[in-house]
Protein backbone atom coordinates (compact mmCIF):
# COMPACT_ATOMS: atom_id res chain seq x y z
CA UNK A 1 0.00 0.00 0.00
CA UNK A 2 1.32 3.42 -0.92
CA UNK A 3 1.35 6.55 1.20
CA UNK A 4 -1.29 8.11 -1.08
CA UNK A 5 -3.55 5.08 -0.53
CA UNK A 6 -3.11 5.32 3.23
CA UNK A 7 -3.92 9.03 3.16
CA UNK A 8 -7.02 8.40 1.02
CA UNK A 9 -8.29 5.73 3.42
CA UNK A 10 -7.75 8.00 6.43
CA UNK A 11 -9.53 10.88 4.68
CA UNK A 12 -12.49 8.57 3.97
CA UNK A 13 -12.60 7.46 7.62
CA UNK A 14 -12.60 11.12 8.65
CA UNK A 15 -15.47 11.79 6.22
CA UNK A 16 -17.50 8.97 7.79
CA UNK A 17 -16.89 10.36 11.28
CA UNK A 18 -17.88 13.89 10.18
CA UNK A 19 -21.10 12.54 8.59
CA UNK A 20 -22.01 10.64 11.75
CA UNK A 21 -21.36 13.43 14.23
CA UNK A 22 -23.04 16.05 12.04
CA UNK A 23 -26.12 13.86 11.59
CA UNK A 24 -26.40 12.98 15.29
CA UNK A 25 -26.12 16.64 16.27
CA UNK A 26 -28.31 17.94 13.42
CA UNK A 27 -25.58 20.21 12.09
CA UNK A 28 -27.15 20.52 8.68
CA UNK A 29 -24.40 22.49 6.94
CA UNK A 30 -21.73 20.04 8.13
CA UNK A 31 -23.92 17.07 7.15
CA UNK A 32 -24.63 18.34 3.64
CA UNK A 33 -20.93 19.18 3.13
CA UNK A 34 -20.20 15.42 3.29
CA UNK A 35 -21.92 14.86 -0.07
CA UNK A 36 -21.12 15.63 -3.69
CA UNK A 37 -23.45 18.11 -5.39
CA UNK A 38 -25.21 15.26 -7.23
CA UNK A 39 -25.19 12.78 -4.33
CA UNK A 40 -27.89 10.24 -3.59
CA UNK A 41 -28.81 8.93 -0.15
CA UNK A 42 -31.42 6.20 0.09
CA UNK A 43 -32.70 3.51 2.40
CA UNK A 44 -32.62 -0.22 1.87
CA UNK A 45 -34.26 -3.20 3.61
CA UNK A 46 -36.98 -1.18 5.31
CA UNK A 47 -40.78 -1.44 5.05
CA UNK A 48 -42.30 0.52 2.14
CA UNK A 49 -43.58 3.30 4.41
CA UNK A 50 -40.01 4.00 5.53
CA UNK A 51 -38.24 3.99 2.17
CA UNK A 52 -36.51 7.23 1.29
CA UNK A 53 -34.35 8.57 -1.51
CA UNK A 54 -32.93 12.07 -1.76
CA UNK A 55 -30.97 13.27 -4.78
CA UNK A 56 -28.67 16.29 -4.69
CA UNK A 57 -27.54 18.54 -1.90
CA UNK A 58 -30.71 20.72 -1.88
CA UNK A 59 -32.95 17.69 -1.29
CA UNK A 60 -30.61 16.27 1.36
CA UNK A 61 -30.53 19.69 3.07
CA UNK A 62 -34.34 20.00 3.08
CA UNK A 63 -34.64 16.52 4.62
CA UNK A 64 -32.17 17.33 7.39
CA UNK A 65 -33.82 20.68 8.08
CA UNK A 66 -37.14 18.84 8.62
CA UNK A 67 -35.33 16.62 11.15
CA UNK A 68 -33.90 19.66 12.93
CA UNK A 69 -37.32 21.30 13.12
CA UNK A 70 -38.81 18.05 14.43
CA UNK A 71 -41.64 18.13 11.93
CA UNK A 72 -44.17 15.39 12.44
CA UNK A 73 -42.80 14.41 15.85
CA UNK A 74 -39.79 12.85 14.16
CA UNK A 75 -38.82 10.48 17.01
CA UNK A 76 -38.98 10.08 20.77
CA UNK A 77 -35.25 10.02 21.51
CA UNK A 78 -33.57 12.69 23.62
CA UNK A 79 -30.24 11.75 22.00
CA UNK A 80 -28.88 9.56 19.23
CA UNK A 81 -25.32 8.39 18.72
CA UNK A 82 -24.31 6.35 15.69
CA UNK A 83 -21.28 4.17 16.35
CA UNK A 84 -19.26 2.97 13.37
CA UNK A 85 -17.37 -0.28 13.54
CA UNK A 86 -15.97 -2.55 10.83
CA UNK A 87 -15.29 -0.62 7.65
CA UNK A 88 -13.90 -1.98 4.42
CA UNK A 89 -12.63 0.61 1.95
CA UNK A 90 -11.66 -0.28 -1.61
CA UNK A 91 -9.94 2.42 -3.62
CA UNK A 92 -10.85 2.62 -7.29
CA UNK A 93 -8.17 4.76 -8.83
CA UNK A 94 -7.02 8.07 -7.42
CA UNK A 95 -10.47 9.66 -7.13
CA UNK A 96 -12.95 6.86 -6.46
CA UNK A 97 -13.70 4.37 -3.73
CA UNK A 98 -16.34 2.05 -2.36
CA UNK A 99 -16.90 1.34 1.32
CA UNK A 100 -18.97 -0.95 3.49
CA UNK A 101 -19.34 0.16 7.11
CA UNK A 102 -21.31 -1.37 9.97
CA UNK A 103 -23.15 1.01 12.31
CA UNK A 104 -25.37 0.87 15.37
CA UNK A 105 -27.49 3.72 16.70
CA UNK A 106 -27.90 4.17 20.44
CA UNK A 107 -30.76 6.17 21.95
CA UNK A 108 -32.48 6.43 25.32
CA UNK A 109 -33.36 2.70 25.11
CA UNK A 110 -29.79 1.53 24.37
CA UNK A 111 -29.17 -0.18 21.03
CA UNK A 112 -32.01 1.14 18.87
CA UNK A 113 -31.26 0.09 15.29
CA UNK A 114 -28.27 -1.09 13.26
CA UNK A 115 -27.17 -1.65 9.71
CA UNK A 116 -24.61 -1.10 7.02
CA UNK A 117 -23.62 1.97 5.01
CA UNK A 118 -22.89 1.00 1.41
CA UNK A 119 -21.00 3.90 -0.12
CA UNK A 120 -19.66 5.10 -3.40
CA UNK A 121 -17.17 7.87 -2.72
CA UNK A 122 -15.52 10.41 -4.97
CA UNK A 123 -12.69 12.85 -4.50
CA UNK A 124 -13.81 16.27 -5.70
CA UNK A 125 -11.36 19.17 -5.63
CA UNK A 126 -9.07 17.20 -3.36
CA UNK A 127 -11.74 16.26 -0.80
CA UNK A 128 -13.38 12.86 -0.38
CA UNK A 129 -17.19 13.04 -0.45
CA UNK A 130 -20.13 10.65 -0.49
CA UNK A 131 -21.52 10.29 -4.01
CA UNK A 132 -24.06 7.58 -3.18
CA UNK A 133 -25.00 6.18 0.22
CA UNK A 134 -27.37 3.30 0.74
CA UNK A 135 -28.44 3.09 4.37
CA UNK A 136 -29.22 -0.58 4.91
CA UNK A 137 -31.26 -1.46 7.98
CA UNK A 138 -30.20 -4.85 9.32
CA UNK A 139 -31.92 -4.77 12.73
CA UNK A 140 -34.08 -2.63 14.99
CA UNK A 141 -35.28 -3.02 18.55
CA UNK A 142 -38.99 -3.85 18.96
CA UNK A 143 -39.38 -0.56 20.87
CA UNK A 144 -37.13 1.46 18.55
CA UNK A 145 -37.59 5.19 18.99
CA UNK A 146 -36.78 5.65 15.31
CA UNK A 147 -39.35 3.21 13.91
CA UNK A 148 -41.57 6.05 12.64
CA UNK A 149 -38.87 8.70 12.33
CA UNK A 150 -38.24 8.40 8.59
CA UNK A 151 -41.93 8.43 7.70
CA UNK A 152 -42.48 11.44 9.97
CA UNK A 153 -39.53 13.42 8.56
CA UNK A 154 -40.66 13.15 4.94
CA UNK A 155 -39.67 10.21 2.78
CA UNK A 156 -38.54 11.91 -0.36
CA UNK A 157 -41.30 10.39 -2.43
CA UNK A 158 -41.72 13.42 -4.65
CA UNK A 159 -39.62 13.69 -7.85
CA UNK A 160 -36.11 14.95 -7.33
CA UNK A 161 -35.99 13.72 -3.73
Automatic annotation (TrEMBL):
It comes from Novosphingobium soli. Residues 5-134 form the SnoaL-like domain. CDD domains: NTF2_like (cd00531). This is Nuclear transport factor 2 family protein. Pfam families: SnoaL_4. InterPro entries: NTF2-like_dom_sf, SnoaL-like.
